[in-house]
Amino acid sequence: MNQKLLKLENLLRFHMISRQLHSLDQRRMLAQWRHGFLSPSAVWAAQLYAWPWQTDVFLGAALSQYRLLVTEKEKRPWKSQLSSTKSKKEVEVWIGMTVEELARAMERDIDWVYEALLNTAVDIDSLEADSHLDEVWIKEVIKKAGMKLKWSKLKQDKVRENRDAVRRPQADPALLTPRSPVVTIMGHVDHGKTSLLDKLRKTQVAAMEAGGITQHIGAFLVSLPSGEKITFLDTPGHAAFSAMRARGAQVTDIVVLVVAADDGVMKQTVESIQHARDAQVPIVLAINKCDKAEADPEKVKKELLAYDVVCEDYGGDVQAVHVSALTGENLMALAEATIALAEMLELKADPSGPVEGTVIESFTDKGRGPVTTAIIQRGTLRKGSILVAGKSWAKVRLMFDENGKTVSEAYPSMPVGIIGWKDLPSAGDEILEVKSESRAREVIDWRKYKEEQEKNKEDLKIIEEKQKEHKEAHRKAREKYGTLLWKERSFIKYLERKEQRPLRPKEKVERDSNVLHVIIKGDVDGSVEAILDIMDTYDASHECELELVHFGVGDINENDVNFAETFDDGVIYGFNVNASNVIQQSAAKKGVKIKLHKIIYRLIEDLQGELSNRLPCTVEEHPVGEASVLATFYVTDGKKKIPVAGCRVQKGQLERQKKFKLMRNGHAIWKGSLTSLKHHKDDISVIKTRMECGLSLDEEKIEFKVGDEIVCYEEKEVPVKTSWDPGF
């Protein structure tokens, strides 16, 4: 500031000196006038003499005023000088923040963020409000907003306290009391597992199963004549229910492996052995259908040796009992073998304290809401208990046994139905008792938060992978265009854009018609799980895409129909559920297919049929007749010479309206239609076997040779079946 003041003072002094020199020059001129003649302009001369003095006074005043202003400015604080300049808003951001969080931090709406990212490499169509943004795009948005960013570590460093519910430590052995064994019956489909259990329970469960096969996990408490109690879990044997069998093995103490004596070891038998081995659970072998003439129990035992299941007869530790579910033979011996093994295992549990258990199955009942079948593993469950399972919680309103009878308490190893859930938990979820409803909500909130954090980590990994892909693509593009002139570069980019033109409406319809949108509704969570597991094996997307748009438990409702309608060709599959007449009529009006099934493999066959219907048909040629060329000649038609073949029909008949092909040395050299077909001199439409004829083709350039074959055929469209094999 002092330098500027000195410059100004020097400038003013220079200006003042110039004016003084000018005044001296004016005085010299006036002196010359006085010597020559008297001038009446004495006043004007006086004014001229006054100019330098007035200029000095004026410049001095201006200089002093400027010094005063500069001094005052130097005394002011620096902030007051910047008050007129608008400061940039500072936005606090962090790594991995979402679109919604960025918009909130900037005090803008989400659409503004989308607009800021329009002309960038970000795929706007796939960007959601909860999508995570890369660091580059966060900076880009802040820059376009004219704001200043500030990186915050608070979001990264902030760790939420773990508020989850966990199992209690192991109880004091002195507090443990004996409990009933939990026994899972496993084996191949149709080997008599449910019939065997029926005989023990003296019920007819198998008769009520659709198609005679078990499609759910059944939990039953069986009381033996000796007073002992056994909890049986009956798992499905069908290939579709692998997850259910695995879940049954995880909550059991003993596995009863049922193998039909007339059928031997099958695929699901081997799978059941593996599930038992993974869960480290001992096996009792029940060789069923021993009443049949073709039964061979010894063959079954030998086949099991290949899978390290060694029976006591062969020096192993696996008890083998020959039974017949039909006649009831040796059923008590099987029960006694199970009880003996349970005594060796010394099964005990703690009946006191908060309840611990496992959800075996879950479903939605119209009158009672979400219902679960559970096995209690620790503690005693009572009405009013607060439970959490997965991301759902319950205040127990009602409990009932496998016969639907209300019970007041459920002790360890007891299967029980529980009513009072706020949402439907998943089969296999761990059940834990908590002190209060507020504690239950806290646990659920924590689990949802934890799930969200895991999802965020996965999203960040995907973002990083996408970023690497974009950078690699950008690098390759630079290498590709780096040596080209701008005109060549522009032309190549134009050709690339032309290839990536948007689909026309007709092309879009054809593409979309090759996608099957499916909604799955099941009676219980395990059934839906089994269907989804089968759909996960779909490997024919190159033929037709299979897209699962929604799934759930419960009857088909109006929301399902409306959802399917949005996809034009959506199909709703219901497994062991109902669709009211009103719902079916509504679906018919909206063009939505509802397909109900009670047997899982029928549902999968139907799904395969729907996929096959979306595939284009293949055209097959079906021969109608064959003729051999005996002679060739030409017929003059005006100025044209038309080649004609003299033929004899060897097989079938030749029909003029059908299609023909000319075969030479086993290869088709022409396909098309005939222009003429004559017998002697008469035009004819059909030539039968052993008759001779003359014919000409619609292609004049084709020349016949003796020995050629003329084949008459018709084309038929043949439906194509999907190549997807679900494995059963």
Helical run tally? 20
Give the uncertain stretches in residue-range form: 33-55, 73-86, 203-217, 237-242, 505-512
Query: CATH fold name of the largest domain, please?
Result: Rossmann fold
What structural category characterises the helix and strand content? alpha+beta
Return the domain count: 6
Largest sheet: 8 strands, antiparallel
Q: What is the average per-residue confidence, as pLDDT, rounded to a whole number?
A: 78
Helix content: 25-40%
Q: Name the CATH superfamily classification of the largest domain.
A: P-loop containing nucleotide triphosphate hydrolases
Keywords: Coiled coil, GTP-binding, Initiation factor, Mitochondrion, Nucleotide-binding, Phosphoprotein, Protein biosynthesis, Transit peptide
Coiled coil: 449-480
Protein name: Translation initiation factor IF-2, mitochondrial
Subunit structure: Monomer.
Structure description:
Monomer. It is found in: Mitochondrion. Keywords: Coiled coil, GTP-binding, Initiation factor, Mitochondrion, Nucleotide-binding, Phosphoprotein, Protein biosynthesis, Transit peptide. One of its GO terms (molecular function) is GTPase activity. This protein is of the alpha+beta class and 728 residues long. The protein folds into six domains: 62 residues, no CATH class; 173 residues, 3-Layer(aba) Sandwich (Rossmann fold), CATH 3.40.50; 79 residues, Translation factors (Elongation Factor Tu (Ef-tu), domain 3, Beta Barrel); 35 residues; 100 residues, Rossmann fold (3-Layer(aba) Sandwich), CATH 3.40.50.10050; 101 residues, Translation factors (Elongation Factor Tu (Ef-tu), domain 3). The strands form eight sheets. An eight-stranded antiparallel beta sheet has the order 27-26-32-23-24-31-28-29, with no helix packed on it. Strand 8, helix 12 and strand 9 form a beta-alpha-beta unit. Helix 1 runs antiparallel to helix 2 and helix 18 packs parallel to helix 19. The relative contact order is 0.06.
